[in-house]
Amino acid sequence: MNETVDVIIIGAGAAGMAATTCFGASEEWTGRSEKSQRVLLLEQHTAPGGSAGYFARGFPKRLHDAGATQLIACEGRDLQNQLFRLATGRELNAFQSLKRIPFIEHHFSEATMAGSTKVRFTTEGTFVCSQTGAELTEFDALVSFVKQLNQDAQWMWKVFDRFPQFPIRTLGDFVHLADLGFGLSPQEAWRAMRCMQRTVWDEAKRFGIQEHTRSFQIIEALLLDTSQCSAKETPYLVGAMGLSILQKGIYCFQNGMHDLFNPWLKGLQNNPKVEVLKKRRVTSLRFHNNLFHLTVASSPSEIEHFQARNVISTLPIDAIVELTSGTPQNQISQTKEWSLLNQTAQNTKQWQAVAIYGIAQETDIKPHSVSAPELPYFSQIFPREHDLIQHALYVSMRPTQQGRARAGERVSFRPFTATAHVDSTSDFTTENGWSSELCQRIKAELVSRVEGATGLKLENVELGTPQTFEKYTARPDGKVGGLVANFDRFLFRSLPSVISLGGKKRMGKLALAGDCFFPGQGVVAASMSGVLAWANITGHDPMKLFRSEL
To answer: First-to-last CA distance in the chain?
Structure first.
């Protein structure tokens, strides 16, 4: 490409598509005529989604999510709905395939093998406990704790609707954050101060929740899925929002994230300001002579060169460091922000994902199943004493679908995804590797855990290793996460959201977005990071953009 574009966005995941949506919908921002504005979106896969991508499988043909399986913020003024409407002109709730998940089930096997404990977390923020073991009273404390955090989270969601930004490094950052707090009642302001200074574990102890109990395990598992930290490290400010998402509303698509990303990308492709190029892998990124220069591989033998005034990268931290290091005359790697990225890439603890994918035939669903057949649901199945994987298994069971089997007859089936986190630094993944024998043991273990807890018969089951996740999402080594949401790293030493270059003129900006950057994990959090990246480059107020489109 010889022509210089205004902005290149690397990655058509939630963050990249959110940023592209804002550029496509906003008024002139470059100081030149609107017709000359050009936004180039590069995606290395053939399908959008990034870490929340998807893939097709077998007979009957079904779609499985490689990463995230649920979505929040789908109604009215909610962020994900507004972004989708800006790109497509349609509401998310116009999709009949979008179903609200009414509860989360938590399953515990009794040590005596005499039965199991099932705890249902409802949309009202209450827990319903059914058990066959000894009587449990600990959930009374958990119910009280959840009610309190749901109250605290209400004002947090209100503030986050106004697009705060971290880290706090300048007086302007502090003033912006303080301005977001105007309008809070004295009681809410007091809660805000308390929530910024305490951890989730500090608050849980106030309600009598003890370590190593089932209540504590539930909190830890939910936090791992939202903040990538333990209760003792997660600030209550972050944890309360993560733990309150069910009350906010969790949704599941009939075909998974495909139903979100596919029409979203088509809407962007119809925008005359936007050009989307698939199967483009960025191999180097440098800033020289007031322009960003990108080397892009479109095939093993074909190399293209692009240049832009600004760039938004949604790649994980270590991928950004690799792209920007080792090239001559690259001003990016000479900045303090890049040094922080490099240091974080070397030291940040990350997770890998292991999963099973398959179907549960409708005729095999037993009467004591945790959910009516027509409802989607989300389960957390906790490990048994001798399991290889000692982390909760996250099971997403989608609604019943119709399809054709290999012989041509129509069948009913339910696709599911069951994922567990594995510490990427553990001997389990690095020393022993993923031998065929180990994969078979893990697959059998996870199948047994799901069938024993849910009463479903699983069929056509395949194992997904970290290499599977890397294949479909391009995450190096299949690692997930990256933003550590503890108090210090979250508020004051979190990763930079933008690198300004070009000396005093600040001719170019490299904005960073995705699940490694504020506000963190999840489709909606990544989408917000994309909106903030757009705001960092343009100087526009996101609230004005969304308000003008309502």
So the answer is: 37
